[in-house]
Amino acid sequence: MTTYSVSPTGLPRGSAIPVGNTERPKLWADVPDDKWDDWRWQLSNRLNSVEDLAKVINLTQDEIDGLNAPDKFRVDITPYFASLMDPDDPECPVRLQIVPRSRELEGFDELMEDSLAEDEHSPVAGLVHRYPDRVLMLVTTQCASYCRYCTRSRIVGDAGAMFNKRDHDAQIEYLKHTPQVRDVLLSGGDPLTLPPKILEDLLRRLRDIPHIEVIRIGSRVPVFMPQRVTPVLVALLRQFHPLWMNIHINHPKEITPELARACAMLADAGIPIGNQSVLLAGVNDHPDTMMKLCTDLVKIRVKPYYLYQADLVEGSGHFRTSVAAGIEIIESLRGHTSGYAVPTYCVDLPGGGGKVPVAPNYLLSQSTDRLVFRNFEGYISTYTEPQDYVRPKRTKFVPDRRHEKGQRGVAGLLAGEQMAIKPASWDVLHERETSKSVNRAIGSLQNHKDVEVTNGHGKPIWTQVN
Ligand code: SF4
To answer: Domain boundaries in the chain?
Structure first.
């Protein structure tokens, strides 16, 4: 029998992931380990001013201007995450994500305050019900550190805009009465910054709702402050399985021994971990960077889940890349490494359209019986369709799904449930005349009178003067 040597942290012994800790800058060299490893100390010693940051990095004028700007998005950086910054390189990918620059205050034409229209899709404050069977539950506006490109910068970081117990009660009440929801994603802000009692209470109340099957937590705390992932926190979370977690890492520099240990603790507690990255100019927009990031994530048992195109929000203008850059990255990953290491690249459609996956084209052509594909190497081959395949009308082995009316979309068209999908105004627009008005028009023409044709709502469409 083969036995494997595994360390108490869950990492394989002799793993390429180093044990020990990230080297600290001089400023914190004398901080005792028990303080440094305490997440409360990390939170209460965050850096947020020119004076603070100048002790750790050599600030550029652009960064000083960004830090001094009066209306900037909140700045707070944990000492641990600050210790990952290169003090001498302003293009350091960690530094770019968290130190403001003057450019983030510059608007751009497409900028929107709430580009994903989350507020419009919120039946109660903080609960975004955009998709048929799942909801996004914003439970706090606080984070351990603040990303300069944050999609929710309109609410995040604002201590005066916290979600309170009354908001949480309303969110839970809505969910109790919405049986089509089977999956709840806790986000914010960052749910792992909540006081443990509040977090546990929310998780318990969600678990008590019979139709909620899966709970997910979206958090950047393991990345900004891996010290927060303690045995006590992990024991709290594991009571509420099936519980999944999505973390947010953008660059391989963020994968440290501390993060690797935090992920190992979560994974050992049976929590599947995915990673969401945002494609950011200067940070991770090179195929080699993404290859290194994705393969390193798999080594610490984190599945690269999504790669997002930057949203059209304040502060993100200088981080935006072309969509073509994202497609090129996926081209450089798919087939070149295992499928586990390839995230789904998507554009979250402005206006609330939701996530749309974007990928290189692999299907080159098709006829009624044959499809032509290419692979990552450019090898072109055919797949012959079966000629006797009959699509099942329904399956007797799975109970009917809990469909939300009106959200079957294109799948509903394929299933023959409806013939077309029309914009709400389509019928009115195409109701160019009623038989009554046409008859009147024809009658008028015959009598050589002035003619006015109206639509079904009495609105003139055209007038002819005879
Ligand atoms: S951790 Fe998430 S919510 Fe918080 S600032 Fe970063 S992107 Fe925004």
So the answer is: 26-103, 127-361, 426-464
CB 358 within 8 A of CB 326: yes
Whole-model pTM over 0.85: yes
Say yes or no: CB of residue 118 within 6 Å of ligand 1. Answer: no
**With contact defined as beta carbons under 8 Å apart, do 100 and 148 qualify?**
yes
Distance in angstroms (rounded) separating the CA atoms of residues 176 and 212: 9
Catalytic status, residue 355: yes
- Centroid of ligand 1 to alpha carbon of 145 (angstroms): 8
Q: Are 356 and 323 in contact (CB under 8 A)?
A: no
Residue 268 is among the residues annotated as catalytic for this protein: no
User: Of all protein residues, whose CA lies closest to atom 3 belonging to ligand 1?
Assistant: 189
Residue nearest to atom 8 of ligand 1 (CA): 150
Span 139-175, pLDDT tens digits? 999 999 999 999 999 889 987 778 999 999 999 999 9
Q: Collapse the DSSP code of 347 into the 3-class scheme (helix H, G, I; strand E, B; otherwise coil) and give the result.
A: strand
DSSP state of 144: S
Tell me the pLDDT band of 424, cut-offs 50, 70 and 90.
confident
Tell whether ligand 1 has an atom less than 6 A from the beta carbon of residue 220.
yes
Which CATH code, of 2.40.50.140, 3.40.190.10, 2.60.40.10, 3.20.20.70, is assigned to 127-361? 3.20.20.70
Give residue-wise pLDDT tens across range 68-118: 999 899 999 999 999 999 999 999 999 999 999 998 988 887 888 787 778
